[in-house]
Amino acid sequence: MNRRDFMHLGSLGAGAALLTRGATADAQVTAAGAAARAARPRAAGPYLPVTTPNGATLPLRDVGGVKVGHLVAEAVDHEFAPGLRAQCWGYNGGTPGPTIECVEGDRLRIYVTNRLPEPTTVHWHGLIIPNGMDGVSGLTQPPIAVGETMVYEIVPKYPGTFMYHPHYDEMTQIALGMAGMFVVHPKRPRGPAVDRDFVLMTHEFRVAVGARRPDPNEMKDFNVLTFNSKAYPGTAPLVVGKGERVRIRFGNLSPMDHHPVHIHGVTFKVTATDGGYVPESAQVPETTVLVPVGSTRVIELVPEELGDWAMHCHMTHHIMTQMGHGLPPMVGVDTKQLEQRMGRVMPAYMPMGSSGMGNMGEMQMPIPPNSLPMKGGKGPFGSIDMGGMFTVLKVRQDPDHADPAGWYAQPPGTAPTRADAARMKADGIELPPPRRP
Ligand SMILES: [Cu+2]
Q1: Whole-angstrom Cα distance, residue 261 to residue 274?
Q2: For the residues of 249-285, what is the DSSP string, one character each?
Q3: Which of 54, 218, 277, 348 is the most exposed place for a label (fewest CB within 10 A)?
Q4: Distance between CA atoms of 5 and 301, rounded to whole angstroms?
Q5: Does the N-terminal peptide bond of residue 437 adopt cis geometry, omega within 30 degrees of 0?
Q6: What does the alpha-carbon distance between residue 337 and residue 177 come to, in Å, rounded to a whole number?
Q7: How far is the CA of 14 from the centre of ligand 1 (A)?
Q8: Beta strand extents in 52-138 (DSSP E only)
Q9: Which domains does the chain have, with CATH numbers?
Q10: Distance between CA 133 and CA 243 in Å, rounded?
Q11: How far away, in angstroms, is 27 Cα from ligand 1 center?
C-alpha cells in the first residue's frame, strides 16, 4: 500500500467514524421520535399531510381518478394580528391561498374563478408542466377575465415544494396577498420520515397607519412583515416534540425582500429548494436560511432542547411593525427642551426613542385605530420586543397534549440571575469606569 492509498483509507476511516457518530445520534432521536409517533394518531394515507399554520389546505375531490380543486381569486377582509385588519386580495377567503397538496404523478384539475375587479391568472411556480398551463398572461394564455372561470390541468412530474401566484398585474396582486404554497409529495418516501411538516409563506405589506388597504405601489418601506400573512402576535406557534424530525417549507413571494429566517435552539439543513432535492453531501448545517424572493427553501431539524425558541426573520426591520417605521433617529438626543416646547402646543407630546426603542410594545401609548403597536406581544417575562415576521417554535415533551398558547416552564437554575456585588467580586469581576463616548 502506498502512502496515498493509506491517506485515502485514513480519510475513509474518519468519514466512517463520523457516519457512525451521526447514526448513533440519529438512532437516539429517532427512538424519541418513534415514541412520540406511537402516542399520536396518524393520518391514514401515503404521506404525512402538511400543516399550514394560520392557513388551510385546498380540498381536492376525486372525480374519476382526477383530483379536482377550486380556487376563487377574491378580495378578503384579512386580520394581520389582533388590532389590524385590511382589505387584501387572496384565494378562497384568505391570504395566503390554501396550500395545494398532492402526490407526484397525480392528475390535478384546478378551477380558477376570478372575482377580482381586474383580470388574473395562476402561475404554478416551479412545476414542470406543459407550457400552456404556466399561467403567464399574454405569453402562455389570455388572462382570466373578471367573473370568468378557467380550468388548469396539471400533472406534477416531480415531488417538491412549490408556490402559486398570479402572473397578471403581479405588482398589485401579489402585494395585496395573492400567493400560496404547492406541495408535491414523492410517490416513494425519500429520506428519513418526518413527524411534522409545516409550510410558511413569508410576505411583506405596506399598510399605512389608519389605511384599510395595503399599498401595492410601495417599493421599499414595508411595515407589516408576515408568516402566512400574519404578523406576530397573530402568528400561530409551531408546537413540536423534542427528538422529532421537523420539516419546515418556506416560500417567499414578498414584493421586494429576501428573508433570512433564523431559528433559535436548533440547527438544521436545507434539504430541498423549488428546484429539487439538495444531495445529502451538499447539505450544510445552518441556523439561518435565506429565503430569496421567488424561491422555496425546505429545512429539516431535530430539536434536542425543550423550550420556547424564537423563530424570526433576522432583518431587524422585518421584526418591527407599522409604528416602527418613518421615525427620526433619536438615540442619545436630550429631549428635555423639546418636550417643554412641544408641551405648549401638544400637552400629550412624548418624544420617543432617546434611550432606544426597547419596550415600545409594552408602553401604554395611544395608537391610531386599526394599527399595530411598534412591536411584539406579551411573553412570560414581559414584553417580547419582536413583532412582524416572528413566531415561536415550542419544543415540548408531549406536543400533542401541550397548550399551544402556554409557555415553557424553565427548570430552576437554567435561566440568568441578577448578579450581586459579592458574587461579582468572588469571580473577580470589576466594573470599569464609565467610558465617555
Ligand atoms: Cu425579512
Answers
A1: 17
A2: EEEE--SS--EEEEETT--EEEEEETTEEPPGGG--E
A3: 348
A4: 36
A5: no
A6: 45
A7: 39
A8: 61-63, 66-81, 84-91, 100-103, 108-114, 123-125
A9: 61-316 (2.60.40.420)
A10: 42
A11: 35
Q: Is 137 helix (H, G, I), strand (E, B) or coil?
A: strand
DSSP-assigned beta bridge partners for residue 111: 70, 151
Phi, psi of 375 (to 5 degrees): -155, 165
Secondary structure (3-state) at 29: helix
307-341 per-position pLDDT tens digit:
999 999 999 889 987 766 666 666 776 777 767 77
Closest CA to 63 of 178, 125, 153: 153
Lowest mean pLDDT among 186-190, 277-281, 352-356: 352-356
The x, y and z cell numbers of residue 84, run together, are 389590524
Number of neighbours of residue 222 by Cβ within 10 angstroms = 24
In angstroms, the CA 263 to CA 288 distance is 7
Residue pair 390/310 in contact by the 8 Å Cβ criterion: yes
Q: Would you state the pLDDT for residue 30? A: 43
Give the number of other CB atoms < 10 A from CB of residue 313. 26
Which residues are within 8 A (CB) of 23 and not within 5 positions of it... i.e. 6 or more apart?
Answer: none
Rounded CA separation 214/54 (Å): 19
- The grid coordinates of residue 338 equal 423639546
Query: 3-class DSSP state for residue 373?
Result: coil
pLDDT by residue (tens digit) across 385-401? Answer: 899 999 999 999 999 99
Q: How far is the CA of 291 from the centre of ligand 1 (A)?
A: 9
Reading the block at residue 186, the C-alpha cell is 414523492
Q: Give the DSSP per-residue string, 315-333.
A: SGGGG--GGGSSPPP-TT-
How far apart are the C-alpha atoms of 323 and 352, rounded to whole Å?
Answer: 11
Residue 177 neighbours by CB distance under 10 Å: 29
Beta carbons of 153 and 107 less than 8 angstroms apart:
yes
- CA–centroid distance, 386 to ligand 1, in Å, is 12
Say what the alpha-carbon torsion angle 84, 90, 92, 98 is, to the nearest 10 degrees.
-90
**How many angstroms does the Cα of residue 129 sit away from the middle of ligand 1?**
31
Residue 205 contacts residue 23 (beta carbons within 8 Å): no
Output the pTM of the full model.
0.84
Distance 258 CA to ligand 1 centre (A): 6
